[in-house]
Design goal:
Elements: H1 9-16, H2 35-44, H3 49-64, H4 105-111, H5 114-120, E1 124-129, E2 132-138, H6 140-143, E3 148-150, H7 152-158, H8 160-166, H9 177-185, E4 190-194, E5 204-210, E6 216-217, E7 220-225, E8 230-239, E9 246-248, E10 251-256, E11 261-270, E12 274-284, E13 289-298, E14 301-304, E15 307-310, E16 316-325, E17 330-333, E18 336-339, E19 345-354, E20 359-368, E21 376-385, E22 391-400, E23 406-415, H10 418-425, H11 431-447, H12 452-466
Parallel strand pairs: 1-5, 4-7, 5-8, 6-9, 7-10, 8-11, 9-12, 10-12, 11-13, 12-14, 12-15, 13-16, 14-17, 15-18, 16-19, 17-20, 18-20, 19-21, 20-22, 21-23
Antiparallel strand pairs: 1-2, 3-4
Length: about 475
């Protein structure tokens, strides 16, 4: 195999899921959430008074609200919030020097090849290890252009005038139970600011690693692009494999000012014990462009619906999503587009693969405001079933008002049959090659949407998941 195919963290997680070693933490792990944990987090982060008060207000909302959604997948009831550790900071401080990282952080990040990725294709990298930012870098040429790329705690403390106005503007702490939880206990994440007219030449990336047992990880990402700015931002995730459950409940907010452009690329390859409950929302102003490229693999349950509020005339947004639900996994994913201004355009293209007993849902919303005109949306969701026990469902919601607005929704479900596999085998392919060819053919048009350096690794990851799936 070409070495480059194994040089990416979202693929190498297959090896590191079982490579768990206890890290040196700065506090004694405490299960369950109470005011003393929140006080501990607030003190350690040196929160300003407004944020400390907000954490406690969010904690009150968290306690008042019931489970977030009546329609939530049944697996969510298995998550015991009292059994989680909400704050697991490393003893060592953040560094920009790979050589100063101690084991097992250093060994884990080496196994994930993050160092090579940072040195070869990235302009900056944030690595969150449980509750701490272990590694942080930003290319000097990008610093010289006025770009800010720091963890969220540093962002709110050192750039409060920028941070505070946007923080929680798209996902308020009282929007739902897990928004309240994240606001109460968030640590790490990233704050990214791109000045007007700056077109970032190298991708920037955040990587989330959950290593400890019963881990709760609550990163907070805030991205602000000023007028005419452009950015490619990537996010990767992985976790060590434990018998107990872990929770990744991050929040991301993107503010795209007029004519700015952002591609937000996500690869999540979790271990089987992780509940992945992510909330991502963007606001696109006049002629701004937001593109989501989203790949979800692994985990016990994923609930994730990136959303764009098209608030300025001529704004546009695309959502491209690939989900793979394997044995005992449930991928409940999709996208939401809110057309709040006229002459806005959006598209959602979602493809899912369900194998063994896996279940993949598409859950989406298109909402066109009554005050708009000449808006266009196209939604396509296609599902592929590999086995008789696998399952897929589609839950679209379309609300259209206004004048001369157009929406279109298409959905399809197909299945790989034994006859199809047999036919390909008669042409000289092995059974695994036949399955791989069929599946990669199904998602190949979406794989081409991802950056070229990720196409081959992503195809290989699909091959790994397909091994032994039929027969």
């Amino acid at each position: 195999m070409d070495k480059n195919i194994t040089d990416f963290a979202f693929l190498k997680n297959e090896a590191t899921q079982k490579a768990y070693t206890c890290a040196e933490y700065g506090v004694l792990p405490q299960r369950g959430l109470n005011e003393s944990v929140i006080e501990q987090i607030s003190t350690a982060n040196r929160d300003p008074s407004w944020l400390r008060d907000l954490r406690y207000a969010a904690f009150d909302v968290f306690n008042e609200l019931n489970e977030p959604l009546r329609w939530a997948p049944e697996q969510l009831s298995e998550l015991d919030l009292d059994d989680l550790v909400y704050y697991n900071p490393l003893e060592a401080s953040t560094t920009d020097d790979w050589e100063s990282l101690a084991d097992p952080v250093s060994q884990t990040l080496d196994d994930l090849d993050l160092k090579q990725e940072e040195e070869s294709i990235l302009g900056g990298l944030k690595v969150q290890f449980d509750s701490s930012i272990a590694f942080s870098s930003l290319n000097q040429s990008l610093r010289d252009q006025g770009i800010i790329f720091v963890d969220s705690v540093t962002g709110l403390r050192d750039y409060e005038s920028l941070f505070r106005k946007a923080f929680g503007s798209l996902i308020p702490h009282n929007s739902n139970k897990f928004a309240a939880l994240n606001t109460a206990v968030f640590t790490g994440g990233a704050f990214l600011y791109i000045p007007a007219g700056v077109k970032v030449s190298l991708p920037l990336k955040s990587y989330f690693r959950m290593n400890a047992a019963n881990c709760g990880q609550f990163g907070r990402t805030l991205i602000i692009l000023e007028e005419d700015a452009e950015l490619i931002f990537m996010e990767g995730c992985s976790a060590a494999d434990h018998s107990s459950h872990s929770l990744h409940a991050s929040i991301g907010e993107i503010i795209a000012h007029p004519r700015s452009k952002i591609q937000y690329i996500t690869f999540q390859n979790w271990s089987h014990n992780v509940f992945n409950l992510v909330q991502m929302r963007a606001r696109a102003d006049t002629r701004a462009s937001v593109k989501w490229l989203d790949c979800n693999v692994g985990g016990k349950l994923t609930m994730k619906y990136p959303s764009t509020y098209l608030s300025g005339k001529g704004a546009n947004s695309e959502m491209v999503s690939i989900g793979i639900a394997n044995e005992g996994q449930h991928q409940d994913t999709g996208g939401k587009m809110f057309h709040e201004a006229s002459d806005t355009h959006s598209s959602i293209v979602s493809k899912s693969i369900s194998l063994r007993t896996g279940r993949a849902n598409y859950r989406g919303l298109v909402d066109v405001d009554s005050q708009t005109s000449d808006c266009v949306n196209n939604t396509e969701c296609d599902a592929l079933l590999i086995n008789t026990n696998s399952r897929t469902d589609t839950y679209p919601s379309i609300v259209v008002s206004g004048q001369n607005n157009t929406t279109q929704h298409e959905a399809s479900v197909s299945k790989i049959s034994e006859e199809q596999i047999f036919y390909l085998q008669q042409r000289g392919l092995s059974k695994s090659e036949a399955v791989s060819l069929s599946v990669n053919g199904f998602i190949n048009d979406l794989i081409r949407e991802f950056p070229v350096q990720y196409s081959a690794p992503l195809k290989h990851l699909v091959d790994l998941k397909m091994e032994g799936s039929i027969g």
